[in-house]
């Protein structure tokens, strides 16, 4: 399946992933053997590199998705959430969403970080997103951080879909 991911103002990326599970509450996809120009770092740590794998969780109607990040050696690094518009699902296996810049990161020790606040500020200042959409993104990020710090987020399904389980559904 393909996810069309618009990053305002006009950068669209298309991600091809394997749909490994789907029902009315969640769609679980698996991105294997990523090929990156350079490693992705959060708080100085490499969280994605060439060969990394991610299990993604998309919740119909939700203003975020969740990914469990694994390095090329398969080791778990952390949980990442994109704040975005609710995904639109086409019958053909094509999905569409728009990035709202903010991200939430929970490292393997449980530390919770909100990322890219300055990018959201810039997007609003440049008119790439409306102030109302910026407020909605901030509200979503704040709610997720509060829930993560209280131990009630991410949802249980994220722990149930291990890297090994996702791999097995593809293989």
Task: Please describe what this structure looks like.
With 171 residues, the protein is an alpha+beta fold. It has one domain (2-165): FomD barrel-like fold (Beta Barrel), CATH 2.40.380. The strands form 2 sheets. Strands 1, 2, 3, 4, 7, 8, 9, 10, 11 and 12 form a 10-stranded mixed sheet that branches. A two-stranded antiparallel sheet has the order 5-6. It is globular, with a radius of gyration of 15 Å. It contains 4 helices and 12 strands. The chain is 25% helix and 42% strand. Strand 8 and strand 9 form a beta hairpin.
Please provide a brief summary of the model.
Helices cover 25% and strands 42% of the residues. It has 171 residues and is an alpha+beta fold.
CATH level-3 fold name:
FomD barrel-like fold
* Strand fraction: 35-45%
What is the domain total for the residues? Answer: 1
CATH architectural category: Beta Barrel
Low-confidence stretches: none
The biggest sheet amounts to: 10 strands, mixed
Which structural category do the helix and sheet elements fall into? alpha+beta
Radius of gyration: 15 Å
Shape descriptor: globular
Q: What order do the SSEs take from the amino end to the carboxyl end, as H and E?
A: EEEEEEEEEEEEHHHH
Text of the CATH class: Mainly Beta
What is the helical fraction, as a range of percent? 10-25%
CATH superfamily: FomD-like
Number of strands: 12
Number of continuous helical runs: 4
- Rounded to the nearest angstrom, the distance between the terminal CA atoms is 16 Å
**Mean pLDDT metric:** 96
């Amino acid at each position: 399946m393909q996810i069309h991911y618009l990053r305002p103002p006009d950068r669209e990326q298309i991600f091809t992933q394997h749909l490994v599970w789907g029902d009315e509450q969640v769609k679980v996809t698996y991105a294997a053997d990523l090929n990156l120009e350079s490693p992705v770092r959060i708080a100085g740590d490499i969280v994605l590199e060439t060969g990394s794998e991610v299990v993604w969780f998309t919740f119909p109607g939700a203003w975020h998705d969740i990914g469990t990040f694994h390095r090329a050696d398969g080791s778990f690094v952390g949980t990442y959430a994109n704040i975005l518009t609710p995904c639109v699902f086409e019958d053909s296996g094509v999905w569409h969403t728009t990035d709202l810049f903010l991200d939430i990161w929970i490292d393997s020790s449980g530390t919770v970080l909100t990322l890219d606040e300055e990018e959201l500020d810039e997007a609003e200042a440049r008119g790439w997103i409306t102030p109302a959409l910026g407020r909605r993104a901030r509200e979503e990020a704040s709610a997720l951080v509060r829930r993560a710090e209280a131990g009630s987020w991410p949802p249980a399904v994220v722990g149930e879909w291990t890297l090994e389980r996702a791999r097995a559904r593809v293989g």
